Structures
1.
Amino acid sequence: MEYFLKVLTVLLWSGFKFVVGVSTAILLGFNQFEILVISISGGMLGVVVYLYLWELILKIYHKFYPKKIKPIKFSKFKRKLVVFIRKYEVYGIAFLTPVLFSMPLGTILAASIEHNKWRIKLIMFGALCFWALVIIGVKLLFKVDPEKGL
């Protein structure tokens, strides 16, 4: 039962904030393979849930509040955001999501740019794998062992 609760904790944290999930898995004493599988599974579970939940929320919202065309006011932040999105597309958002954004925010941003859900899932999966391997590599490089102390 204790192992199940540890796995559930890592899954839920990875589904919301990926770096916290991987760090929690390291601190709970999982081995490298378990860290990879559990944290990436939790991250992808978060991506799938938020992707389809956002679609449902938008359907309900547009049912009660139809789309209206109104002029857009551009600020410096919006201009930088548009430049970033045009330059890096979904790849930039997926690359930054595990370490900078939370999984819901990154998934919603990716869904607002790309309408192909399978492409979003594939790109997010690649980004999650990359960051999980980087974090585990840093753990191994600096020989972090939670049982002996940091």
Note: Residues 58 and 70 are 18 Å apart (CA to CA).
2.
Amino acid sequence: MEKYLLSIILDGRKGVFASSLRLIFLILSGIYYLGLQVIRFLYRVRILKRLKLKARVISIGNLTVGGTGKTPAVERIARLLQEKGRKTAILSRGYKRKIPNSQFPITNRKIAVVSDGRKILLSAKEGGDEPYLLAQNLSGVPIVVGKNRIASGNYCLANFDTETFILDDGFQYQRLERDLDILLIDSLNPFGNGHLLPRGILRESLRSVKRADLYILTRTDQAGNLEGLKNRIRSINPFAPILESIHAPCYLEGLKSKRKVDLEFIEDKEVLALSSIAHPESFEKTLEDLRAIIMKRLRYSDHHPYTKEDLKEITTKARGCLIITTQKDGVRLEPLLENESILALKIELKITKDQEILERML
């Protein structure tokens, strides 16, 4: 159903029914736009008030739904802050997490500690895929999830002596004042078809790009006409720096053993590329660049909750091929595995142009 609706939204499906549905979506987009304008007005006249945490707040977000590479960006910036000696915590919403029955380590039903910086306290299902993955990759950085990021932040201030917060997926979270607004833009598909939800993939109008203090273009090694994209951004905000980045592969990792494997291991090997992410093409292109021979591509919907039945389908379709997946998929697949049958590709965000600007602004 998700793939079918996306094919309608992104103008890939023809016919009277698809055209009628696009018209309905366009009307709903207009209503959504009016709602955004009302909220923006209420903040401007201070009927709705922005609150401030007693620490520095760095927001990392995007303008579209779907993957722009926020998780690798959050990890990278957290590491840069650690290198500067800053006591850092990450505040995330915890998208699609399942709240456990037990109250531990839930501080209340709205705030949960995925990691206290020393130990992971929640599963991927309980804390959310991205927060759990960040907890696996980062030590010394508390990660707290909850819709109310102000309450989460105050909890960190009281319990972790936090100096700097990273607001994960925070561009649309207007309740909280921030010191630095970083906007990620996917070079492969920066603004979709230009329409707001649900007619397109934009969370806000393009004019909202102006709010950002810094732009990071992602996947620039797989995209063309970067200057055209930069000029479009500069026409809206001519002052904020525009950085370029890539998702650089680091190593492969066994989901059960956590054993690291060199990237050369998959050279000239037949693989099944398994993913449930917003842009599987980018993941598959990376595997091809590593000289893996992709025999089959198995794509599930974004954030797909894998089951034993799915695992059986995956292993059946592999038929002797190596199964390679993303780290984000790995956190959902690992609890289902009984043996070491799947490898996850670890990637990191690498700033390829003007990293010194990012470090200075942090």
Note: Confidence is low (pLDDT under 50) at residues 103-107.
3.
Amino acid sequence: MVSKWTVNLISYALDIWNGKLGEILTLITQSPQEFKNGEIWKVILKINDAMQAIGLALLVLFFAVGVIKTYGSFVEVRKPEHVIKIFVRFAISKAIVTYGLEILTSIFEIGQGIVSSILRTATLSSFDKAVIPKEMIDAINKLGFLDSIPIWLITFIGCLLITVLSFVMILTVYGRFFKLYLYTAIAPIPLSSFAAESTQQVGKQFLKSFCAVCLEGAIIVLACVIFSIFASSPPNIDPNSGAPVMVWKYLGELIFNMLVLVGTVKASDRVVREMMGL
């Protein structure tokens, strides 16, 4: 009976893990407009519209402050080349605030194109599932009641860790969607800083940070692809070794690879920011 519980427990933990990997593939290939049937996106659009009015007001303020700081007197402003420069900056800044949503959407689509290219190159439509080797199942089923208890305890701890790692990983991916929504909702305010040279760095940093969030998807997919290759080649099980050794080696190597994957997924934001010099 304990032997059967052990196999079922490992199978249950792996089912959770495989399910979360499949959910990640679905989430990463989704756009914010599709996530949760687009209900969240509708609210974000309303907030973005409200922020746009504030952004345009700040645009005028930043523009006026920028002109005063850049030009010491109105005599300089009267020069044709300065007037043209001021007009062009204001027009471009207003366009950035007005069409900020379209700009962010285009950046996200570029990021999604990178994700699709990775999956297409890796020829993956789904991630390979982690499975229990048949040799290990047979060895566990041959154990008596007392011999099965230590293995069950090891399995319980290992499967608990696998379950926790599954939810940590999926929560990180959900967190990426939260960041996408937050950036989109508040976008008009930081984008209005392009109106002046003294404040434009805020807008540049905002766009770089948004690009980093979009590229997180590529890092997460790459990590999952690498793990999928490991999963397709499970640890070599020596049929002559005892069941405890088989379980220990299998769960140990599997959990180690899972820890590396979850650590990479959680660090995807930092990895991309370092790559972009943020």
Note: Residues 209 and 270 are 11 Å apart (CA to CA).
4.
Amino acid sequence: MPGVKTNERPGTRAVLKHSSIPAPKARQVLDLIRGEDADRAAEILRGTERQAALEIAKVLASAVANAVHNDGQDAEDLYVSACYADEAPTAKRWRPRARGRATRIRKRSCHVTVIVSRMDDERLARRRAERDANQARRSRRVTESRRRADLSGRLTRRRAAQAEAEEARLAAEAEEAEAEELELEDELPEDEQLEMDEDLAADETAEASDDEAAEEAEQDEDDEQGAQAGEETKG
């Protein structure tokens, strides 16, 4: 029984006539998207680093738009049921060569056809189940990330509150210590207070005299060194 003719295949099609890409190069790209979902095929073409992929992506988009606007199909239910590239007329050019000869140049072209059709019910059900599973998995991930963010925020706020409470406690202890010192100073008799002031003044005077003595000793040592250096120079 003969198969279905190329121009009688069911589905919505889009055709690019007289493409400047040779048919073998276009077929290599078409083999990547044949049988794939429309959105998956477009994604594959975006990631293919070939010049033919750019033109085939436009043909695929045109076929999907025809199915949506002309046949009332849903873009998410479409897949690439058929895609092929037919030979187109070849342009002949000539290139000059040595000794007055010429070489023929063949500039080949092709006709690119992409046909999209609605997926069967079983495939649609499986695809929708996978999409729902992916959405549920994504929602669980989002919920888990939000829960972790909330937990980390609560921990951060708790740690900040604990730090503030610790700072307040230390400040209160410091104030209590200062108040106790002031009370002790107030409770001391006047004689003991005078003695403490005199001891502090004596300590300060002793420190000042020690500093002066150290400075005088350093000055005397510098004078002796200078005198010795002068005697050596004279000698």
Note: The radius of gyration is 47 Å.
